[in-house]
## 1
Amino acid sequence: MTKLTRVPAAMAVVAGLTAGTSLAAGDALAQSIHERVSQFTLDNGLQVVVVPDNRAPVVTHMIWYRIGSVDEPPGKSGIAHFLEHLMFKGTTTHPEGGFSERVADIGGNDNAFTTADATAYHQTVARQHLGLMMEFEADRMRNLVISEDEVRTEREVILEERRSRIDNEPAAQLGEAVAAALFQNSRYGIPIIGWEHEMAGLTRQDALDLYDRYYTPDNAVLVVAGDVTEDEVRELAEATYGQIPAGAETPEPLVLTEPPPLTPRVVSLADERVRQPTLSRHYLAPSYATAEPGEAEALDLLADILGSGTTSRLYTNLVVDSGKAVSSGAGYRGMRRGDSSFVLWGVPRGDRTLDDVAADLDAEIATLLADGVTEEELERAKRRVRASTIYAEDDSSRIGRTYGMALVLGRSIDDVREWLDRIEAVTVEDVNAVARTYLDPRRSVTGRLTGVDGKAS
Amino acid sequence: MNRLLATAAATLTIVVAVAGRAEAIDIQEVTSPGGLTAWLVEDHAIPIVSIEFAFRGGASRDPADMPGVANLMSGLLDEGAGGLDSKAFQARLDALSISLTYDAGRDTFTGSLRTLEENLDAAARMVRLSVSAPRFEDEPVERIRAQIISSIRRNERDPDRVAGRALLEAAFPDHPYGRPVDGTVESVSAITVEDLRTYHGQVLARDNLVIAAVGAVDAARLGRIIDRMFGRLPQKANLGRVADTRPVGDQRISVDMAIPQTSIRLIGPGIKRDDPDFIDAFVAAFILGGGGFGSRLFDEIREERGLAYSVGLGIGALDHTGLVSGGTSTRSDQANEVVALLEDEIRRYGEEGPTAQELREAKNYLTGSYPLRFTTSSRIAGQLLGIQLDDLGIDYVDERNDLIEALTLDEVREAAARLFRDGAFTIVRVGQPAS
């Protein structure tokens, strides 16, 4: 069975926490593969990262655009994600569905995803088809064709996607409300998939406006991971992407930061569908991009010590030793263009209530702030990070994803490479300092998910 | 011991052909000094070892009136064993950076180990303790029981979970496959340590054990390692008999729930994995509903009409039945239309079968993408485990694409007719009542 130590859906919606997309423990470093990573930039401004790994004759090809939901014009929430869907429709060169059909025909897998900060398209194929993928993807950067009919139909698809992911899931609905309360100025409080009433009004022209402005080589990062050399990638990239002129004006990434929060907030959702009440506490916290040097690394380690796995503080104290909670944990997402969040959660056990859970978490935080973490806890957390970086080398496409995410957020490949060194340099005092600074009630939003029969409160 | 092993270890070279370029994966069949067998892909590029293992006889061997025993046990083997209590066991795994997890499936009880090569011997000891000397102490038993009950409650109003559960209940009445793997609140509440020990004694043995290893370990060392892991288990499992069965089709079930989107699930008879026409049926079902973009159902329901975000269907094979299952979700007021469309498309496909072009495209994708299943250690180990569990033979990796390429249009049309022509599917809807 899966032990209840993972991030529940409600927290995932707010923090954008999903397995495999956070830079936290697992995705970066260790020596060998990272030393082989190289980077260059084409004349038109396209940044290129190569992650050579010849253990299987396969490559993952991905293009990342610096356009996420935070870049959407007011009133057009969901348009970045909608455009991602429409990018599969066709181009002047290759008619509707032609790209995906071709990928399937060569036995490849393709997909795409949209985050708050970026949109990415990726294919995994046998190595000899890399050039073909670049040809198609470069074509799609330039020659998209979409009809009113396709827009109408696909808009229904994204509305169904929203119903599946959000409207049918009370935990996800609460997650949207928590995010809206936590982010008072930046756009991270607006759902990536969009608000339903705005999604319903998105038009073909809205999508094309975004496409024309942001889908340019100078606003993109190309990552190739797998059985390939830097020279091969350079040659193929110059022949394909290299033929596309830079955009008229490279968009300046929008970075809105948050004012100092002054008010603890509580957001509650009571719904008949909820059979297991859950409490989560979200603190506004900086990301790697907005933090002072070393702070984000310390927050990653703090999240690990407090709430990662069955030996963490929260699980040991609240779940094992006192039996007060069914599950409890913590998480932090550092990879953001703007400010981010640090989350703790607990699920009450037996007849305990959400108020009890809130008190239990408060007591844990009070102890943490008074006594700090120990040298031993920090060393164990660092060891987990070191081991996970070795395990991560098994999947070069995931390492490629880490680099793509970092570069699209304006960081460098050296930032990724040196991450483990910076983690090693974090001290007990650093961890205690970020805990004191950021686990401040005034920075928090508490999410309460309950049933409606009273006893689930 | 090493000498004996060296002669006993047969090495077979398996070639996974990638169009235009052949790459070899060496799969070694290793026989341990103690007589256990494992498949190994040796790879020293990264200092890690992944070992996947499975005992035949999963949740289908739960007591009939007590579903959830295998699942509860899967949460407890790493919660105290031998001289280590729960916290000491977890602390040791953490200190050694070892990941060790167990899971209960329908027909198998599986374990998954990932370790740094330098800690392989210590990891083997942890596996040995967990499979042969679990403590089942009160604190972890009650804690994990509470977690499972919490998870069952959480799923009580999750439309997809509710639909899936109702589907299996309806398709397999009075059969273990109709019971939930994680049990019910009542059954999980009632499981005793005695029940766990009985199940443990019946299912965890050497003659129903299958092992796959990938990573920085050679055949001789792997032989010693698996003996250390499993040497203390009894030779013979004592698995109760499970009857062969067919899913009951042709039922319509509605579960009312006040949600904006209706979850639709369907199930019907398929064919078993050991049927000589299994590959034909696998490909026939793939063309109708597999693989997302390009399948008939995806094109008709999502691409043409925008009626759903996800829609799909595929063939499934358990040890004692074959089945076809699938589903989609759509706005409540469209549910009737979508169910009718699904039924029409399935029946039409059963009557007409695929076109030559559809078969060509499916063959291209399925054969071309096979190597993508062998890109990481855990994926490779998972493939090797599955091939052994299905008794397909060590050369299956080499033969599999040829089997698909050799299919004729008539064969796949015949399989499509067999699976889909009578359209006798059981369909479950969870959502607002049909108007």
Note: The first helix of chain B runs from residue 2 to 8.
## 2
Amino acid sequence: MLRITRAIDFSTSLRYWRGDLSDVENAELFGPLSRQHGHNYRLEVTLLGEPDPLTGMVLDLKDLQQILDDEIMTRFDHRDLNNDTPYFEKKPPTPENFVQVIYEILKSAVPDDLLDRVRLHQDSDVWVDAFEAPSPT
Amino acid sequence: MIERTHSYEISAAHVLSHPSLSDAENRALYGKCANPGGHGHNYGIEVTVGGRVDDRSGQLVAAGLLDQIFDERIRQRFASRLLNDDVAFGDLVPTAENIAVVVHADLAAEIAQRTTAHLVRVRVVETRRNSSTIGAPE
């Protein structure tokens, strides 16, 4: 088994905001992050599998890129995470919540249960990882 | 599972020499890194935390708190200093490995005390060509 990683870059706007809280409560809870702001995200998608004996590939990178275009770029690039996507009406688009959303989307979209891990870089200093908990041995 | 990593940079000097060894022995063991005048690095320190994402805030650690803990516990203590002067490195040579050990031990206790998260790993990037990682494997 080996891992392959593909990266994409996209940009969004967002604010840390919970629809079930008042303006004052949101401002208190999230401070400056409750204001509209944005990031250049880098997403690294790692698959774990065996290279196909014929092609030598775990998954054709063209196919993986198509999945990332359809599932991630179309949904999120140059969008407002709070208002242009359905994922953050109640929970704020923190990196922790955002990477969980991306992980679940890709878990369904990547064939043959190949998805191993996604890493979302919010900027050069902060990143988050989502992955399956290792099974207890 | 979710992990969150913050990457910091601090500059510090160190000398690789053990106080119980002679100058000649240190020079033989550590080569140019034993230069008594010391030398310095821009250390990258990557701090990874895990745990349960808080339902209310959507975060593993409240915004700014991890940075605050790092500043108080690590930056103020080690940045722009000679690491050998720190009490932690009295009998412990400040190699990248031992820096990771010291930083990990301090931050693990502090993060456990002040947050609901736990420290997963610490990676010390001494130069672009070497690093040391302690904690759970990635």
Note: The longest helix of chain A spans residues 61-76.
